[in-house]
Amino acid sequence: MHSVIASPADRRLSALIRHLEGSSNAMDSDTITASPASGFPGARNSVFEHVVRGPEDPILGVTVAYNKDSSPLKLNLGVGAYRTEEGKPLVLNVVRRAEQMLVNDSSRVKEYLPIVGLADFNKLSAKLILGADSPAIQDNRVTTVQCLSGTGSLRVGGEFLARHYHQRTIYIPLPTWGNHPKVFTLAGLSVKTYRYYDPVTRGLNFQGLLEDLGSAPSGAIVLLHACAHNPTGVDPTPQQWEQIRQLMRSKALLPFFDSAYQGFASGNLDADAHSIRLFVADGGECIVAQSYAKNMGLYGERVGALSIVCKSADVASRVESQLKLVIRPMYSNPPIHGASIVATILKDKNMFQEWTIELKAMADRIINMRQQLFDALSTRGTPGDWSHIIKQIGMFTFTGLNSEQVAFMTKEYHIYMTSDGRISMAGLSSRTVPHLADAIHAAVTRVV
Amino acid sequence: MASAMLSLASASPSASLSLQENLKISWKRGTSSRINFLGSDFSKTKSFTRTSMTVAVKVSRFNDITMAPPDPILGVSEAFKADTHEMKLNLGVGAYRTEDLQPYVLNVVKKAENLMLEREENKEYLPIEGLAAFNKVTAELMFGADNALIQQQRVATVQGLSGTGSLRLAAALMERYFSGAKVLISSPTWGNHKNIFNDARVPWSEYRYYDPKTVGLDFDGMISDIKAAPDGSFVLLHGCAHNPTGIDPTPEQWEKIADVIQEKNHIPFFDVAYQGFASGSLDEDASSVRLFAARGMELLVAQSYSKNLGLYAERIGAINIVCASSDAAARVKSQLKRLARPMYSNPPIHGARIVSNVVGNPELFNEWKEEMEMMAGRIKSVRQKLYDSLCAKDKSGKDWSFILKQIGMFSFTGLNITQSENMTNKWHVYMTKDGRISLAGLSSAKCEYLADAIVDSYHNVK
Questions:
Q1: ipTM for the predicted complex
Q2: In this complex, is the C-beta atom of B196 within 8 Å of any C-beta atom belonging to chain A?
Q3: pTM of the model
């Protein structure tokens, strides 16, 4: 190794040496051939040599394994997307209609949206989540910007807070969606947790939640799942939400809501927005990330909105101008297609009605699967209290099964789910419930 | 307790105690009762009725936030909209306009969208790296379908949010894996490049590019600055139709640029926003990238379909990273995914499907090439007409031929800030303050008017 001034090339080579020396994995021959002492990298050496392979996403790994299984009994309960009774993805009728209208409208163009997105979409989204008669909207205190679904809204909101908010710590529930800590960390916030799930009751650890939020520093940001907590399906009751609100306001904790299931959880859009509206009603500030992935089935279109409810219209306007500075260097302006579909549906009375009916049907099917699974386990006399299956809400159920039981269910019954015991009710049908119930019964009685 | 809370609610921010102190006091008072009730049944405790008077803070948590300045490019369109003058002209817009100065949706795009509707495709999440069919055709379009590096699987391609999003993903990778390495950007360059690297925390410096004396390329300055940079820097190059100048290196100059980049072990990073749109030929506009790739160099290419397929608002593009081995490409791709996931999880489907339908269907692909030639052709013809008008109207003997030598949507007129302002204030011609005009927003009917404005601003305003 010749001694030279540490140029970037040298730093990369040093990183490679450390990697080679520190690694206990076998390296392939290509990498070993890249000799550190060979001077300037030639065609065979890569400047990306030090880039290691990233781990496969744990949830996607479930689907990969499922696809490999040839058993006719196999069941994929890892999927985080709605499936029909026939096990197929669903595009809502009202969405198809809206799309037809858009594509057939020859006056439509594909010019850049403004940085903040489609104006109609933004206004309608704010009304949907906060309520059409929300005083915050009437006072012009809300800034809403179109973002890339829930993830994009969380990221833009997080970056904004990291730049402009005095407290750079966000508290997230334990457990939470796997992507939350990554989004906020890359946004520049430091992530802490508050107790949420109680594995003993398979319900909410309310005392732990209050203690942890109670000991958070004043002004800290708190991530709240608006409804249908992912992955547990455990939500606070309205009374508990009120207590959480009081505690948070007394400590000036800033609420950051993740709303990915409005209308999809209970079947009622207003009920699923209750927690957010409770906070807005007290005149305080909060942030809301909204996703239309599930409730409008627009997963791949990446439609969402970030709303920041501020104290005054003047503050809201300044906040919006700063949000634009976050968005412009990230992707300039958001994609038009999905937002246009949403706006078309929300602004038309008939289409809106149609949507609420299709939405309720999806929510009802899921609730029905919960009931069927619970009944099937009761019929089998499966040991344990399974009432959490019907108490939990939304797409997911935290079964309480441990990883050995999960592995057993996969091996013996071809049931695919995440190792934390989470199942997607959206992946179940009346036809497959008995098989799942058999598997759970066997796992609980034969595997400790 | 209740009264303390009420007085807090009505206290103005200038009250003797700061808001924070007030909150701390009220919290302290509540603490002892809180410890008691936490161990007991919450719903029955009296202390909650007392704290039910709690109101949110009066002063905004965001009070100190200042109003950000308007975007220098988008602000131009807004000013144009407000202008009522009949001769007004919007040459700020970086979007193609027809001769009637209308936005243009390509016929092949409409056909593709209709096909997609007929097929009733679902809207499931794409993989983090995007639509596989799109990634395949976009790499082939950039490097050539028969290019060895595609057969050898040495290109990591990830669908990105048009050019901006693709640049940002690459910048995030640079920050994480090439810590301390900087990116060299041309002076001038597209205004958003600096913002992207700043937000991604990648240090940058400039290399000389535009020579105002010749209204051409400062080639010696460019080479010299690239040589002077630390080994292993990234060099951001515009693949064709440099924005904002319209001045591209010649093929011979590209070879020399590649030489010095190889000599310094720099990593070339191409921004390709105008493939096919610059010359009218997809292959010709890709030649700079292919020249570098043919030398066996590792390189990055950000692609955009905003202009060449008119898909501006659909946000469709890609980041391609050419690596020395297929293993490196696989690893790099996996890390790009790790950066995309916490930014937006997975990219939007609509634009990706349109592109893969157009590029993947021979009939539509050919039709696309024709439409692209038409768009590029219109721009070339207004360049010519503008030049002719300038020569006819300007009797000073000034050489306006740089307008014909420049290529792509934009022309750097050489007008300074005050002259550009005169263009707007006196002539209602909207453009960016750096003297850039978008020929995509110019009709042949308005060339003479524009020539008058330019001649006046150049000669009569200092």
A1: 0.89
A2: yes
A3: 0.88
